Task: inverse folding
């Protein structure tokens, strides 16, 4: 069995949980409760299901709860916690560093510290922070620095500012996450970020959200109504991104994704610990029984692992 590399895996610390609840996130994104997490439980799940390495990240609501200084402190805290977890379990955990966006200066400082000093494998960016999406011109210094460094950017969905109303009282991860992922990727595209920074390596979660369905519509609007003549087409830019298959990807979502992204851009994600162990096991069973996504790949496991090792060459060196 091919040992998987999990690019969409989460951790929660007691300190982070206390601070998030104090900031008003007792029911994050409309969910009933926060999940429990420990390195030991996570490793047990990994060993049971053939996951060699998990790249840990903070999930929604991220680290910015409205105060820049507090967000800088919390980002530093969770990044140092993640680095300690990885150091205690060499070869099993890596991590994506959290940034205190939309605080640009704080984020630039944290990129340097997390990548250069802590050895982060990349950064995790929420799809929006208090309504600021990732194509916003004010964030250009941050995306430019990430592109210059070729630092992998893992996008993670969060609630839109209208989430309380648009979700109609239902948990926002169900569909709002997919739409907010789509919204921020389209913003990156239409704002020119992806074209200005072709070295920016981006992982889009959950089979691209709604992107496989709306990509042709976005491409048509860019050509007909948004003065995109002479620029790289939307479809071509979207094909350059990576996509994880976290969530119930089979039988429909992964098939739709393969109509947009080549097999060489697909990665595995468990979404543990926000996805309970039994549900994560069901998702893995679906992956293992799904037809191979490409003639050259015997299994989804083999394909996504080869892709992850190409995107993260440093993982092999640590094993």
Result:
């Amino acid at each position: 069995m091919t040992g998987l590399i999990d690019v969409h895996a989460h951790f929660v610390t007691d300190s982070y949980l206390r601070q998030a609840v104090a900031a008003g996130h007792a029911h994050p994104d409309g969910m009933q409760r926060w999940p429990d997490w420990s390195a030991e439980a996570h490793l047990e799940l990994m060993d049971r299901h053939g996951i060699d390495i998990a790249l840990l990240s903070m999930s929604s609501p991220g680290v910015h709860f409205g105060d820049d200084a507090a967000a800088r402190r919390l980002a530093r805290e969770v990044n140092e916690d993640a680095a300690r977890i990885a150091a205690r379990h060499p070869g099993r955990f890596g991590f994506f560093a959290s940034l205190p966006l939309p605080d640009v200066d704080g984020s630039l400082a944290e990129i340097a510290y997390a990548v250069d000093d802590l050895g982060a494998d990349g950064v995790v960016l929420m799809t929006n922070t208090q309504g600021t999406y990732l194509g916003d011109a004010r964030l250009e210094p941050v995306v430019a620095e990430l592109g210059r460094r070729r630092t992998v950017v893992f996008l993670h969905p969060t609630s839109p500012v209208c989430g309380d109303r648009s979700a109609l009282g239902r948990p926002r991860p169900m569909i709002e996450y997919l739409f907010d992922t789509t919204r921020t990727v389209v913003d990156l595209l239409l704002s020119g970020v992806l074209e200005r920074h072709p070295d920016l390596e981006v992982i889009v979660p959950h089979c691209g959200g709604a992107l496989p369905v709306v990509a042709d519509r976005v491409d048509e609007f860019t050509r007909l109504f948004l003065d995109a003549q002479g620029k790289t087409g939307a479809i071509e830019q979207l094909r350059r991104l990576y996509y994880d298959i976290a969530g119930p990807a089979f039988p429909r979502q992964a098939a739709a994704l393969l109509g947009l992204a080549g097999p060489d851009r697909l990665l595995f994600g468990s979404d543990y610990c926000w996805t309970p162990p039994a549900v994560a096991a069901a998702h893995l069973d679906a992956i293992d029984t799904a037809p191979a996504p490409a003639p050259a790949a015997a299994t989804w496991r083999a394909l996504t692992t080869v892709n992850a090792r190409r995107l993260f060459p440093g993982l092999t060196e640590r094993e």
